Amino acid sequence: MDRINTEAQNIDQELFTEYAFSVDQLMELAGYSCAVAIAKGYKPTIFYPKRPSKPLFDALYQQCEGMDMPVLSFFPSEAHLITDSYNFIVDALFGFSFKGVQQDAQEDGAA
């Protein structure tokens, strides 16, 4: 997995330096690509437990609401509720370059 992370970081670095992409642009392109692929086969529900008060995140939240995507501030704690309600889960909280201690899912309210 380290080789994949290193390769992805190298690609990002090239996009930043040689092609002058911003972090926001790359995040938008990656998110859009995933969203298009997911929306073709599923009806998305967004799990958004913490809402930072930043213009980018406020706009994304408004866009989700405008497209009638349900937004949850909590995630069901019982496994059967998750499997009965959702057939596909995408972890889009952190990018590949996230470093740190992973918290127990129960501590964040995710099951």
From TrEMBL:
InterPro entries: YjeF_N_dom_sf (IPR036652), YJEFN_prot_NAXE-like (IPR032976)
PANTHER family in UniProt: NAD(P)H-HYDRATE EPIMERASE
Stated name of the protein: NNRE-like protein
